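Homework help board

Subject: predicted structure for assignment chain

Our instructor gave us this sequence and asked us to write out the predicted structure in token form, then describe one feature. I got the tokens but I'm not sure how to describe them. Can anyone check?
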Amino acid sequence: MPVIQSGLCYAIFAYDAARSIDLDAAERRILESTQRDTIKHRRRAPSYFEYQPPPLRVTQETEALKIGKFFARPSVDLVVYDFGAVAVIYAVPLEGEFANLLDLSTELYDNELLLADSRRRAGELVNDLGNAVAQASLAPVVEDYVIFHIDSFNPSFDPGRFYSENGSLIAQILRAETQRLSDQELEDALSARIAYGVDDITIVDWNAALLVDREGDDVRAVLEFANVELLEMRYLDQKLDRALDAAYETLSKRSWSLPRLAGYYGADLRRVAELQVDNAILFEGVNNTLKLLGDQYLARLYRLVNRRFHLDEWDASILRKLETLESIYEKISDQATNRRMEILEWVIIILIAFSIALEFIR
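My token output:
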């Protein structure tokens, strides 16, 4: 059984906290130690491979939280993105037998202590940012993810031997599953793996990832952002469902009252248009934050994570709902136009009748 010499386990909890956040204004308001996140390039990459704009990382000192028989570091990182997301990251030092990671993985799965603490920290941070935050509202949805980042093993690490001898245990750690898994589950859990050199390996699953790499900060940054992106896709999908329900209710209303014909349709159209714009801006903001065109290895890693998280399917669902919302907007607009034309025709008829009646009266 391999023995971990050094490493860290990162437990990540992502929240949608606001419509948008001015990162420069937020940085000026925060008193704790802050730094703007950029990806540390170990591999060759052009200068334009970065976050656009770079998120803000806030480090808060705290007591070491107990997670089963493990203890987290006495500090917590909060990463703030301009499109309104906040990721709360706990780090747990790793050393000892590799098999111990299974106990840690099961302890982290739906950990109520970390869920409550991370939500509290995200909410307090958003409140502290004040007017740097637009339309602050901490959404109930959360997306958690675990990254086991191991720097070194004893004896020296051989990726091929490590994978062949410990595949079953790796799958259990990634799935937080104490019972042995079937061959089909093993194949699925270990299918998304990638390596850059002869002494590193990254295995990505839907619940956790295993990263064995002395210099894997760039890989971990991509995994962290993909988790935030998945959160925003889930949150946006739910928002669009509610927007479609509201838009359909508006479309199905039937009223011939004069106030509605005169101006209520305008309010309906504005409301649907605001739903379209808000959701479209969030969708574009999330998808354009991280530029991966310049680094082929990290681009391949991101495509791997994309398939594992089904981000393309989420994108397709969101685009389809945005198109449906646009269709409903057009139908409401057509309905308003038809109603106004009908009332205009009746006004003309009434005026003609009135003018004829006036002639007879004279």
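Reply (TA_rk): Your tokens look well-formed. For the description, you could write something like this. The chain has a mean pLDDT of 84. That's the kind of observation they're looking for.
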